[in-house]
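In this supplementary section we document a worked example of the pipeline. Step one takes a protein sequence of length 76 as its only input; no multiple sequence alignment statistics are reported here. Step two produces a three-dimensional model, which step three serialises into structure tokens for compact storage. The input and output of this example are shown verbatim.
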Amino acid sequence: MVSRKRKSVDETVKADPMERISRLLAMIAVKGLDNQEAARRLLSIGFDSPQIGGILGVGHNFANVAKSRAPKKDRA
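The serialised model returned by step three reads:
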């Protein structure tokens, strides 16, 4: 029987240089922020939930949860 190992987010993303640059810039943009604020900021600039999970090292649904837990004044 063949073992089906789960691939990490990094393995499923092609080695596109522009993708790597955008991920690096995203990491720089959220350096020093807590994960919830970082996820909200990355959502606001166009990253989707699985990408944010890969950048922050959290689950793929973390960004959606962080968005729903945002203070009401921050929600748009």
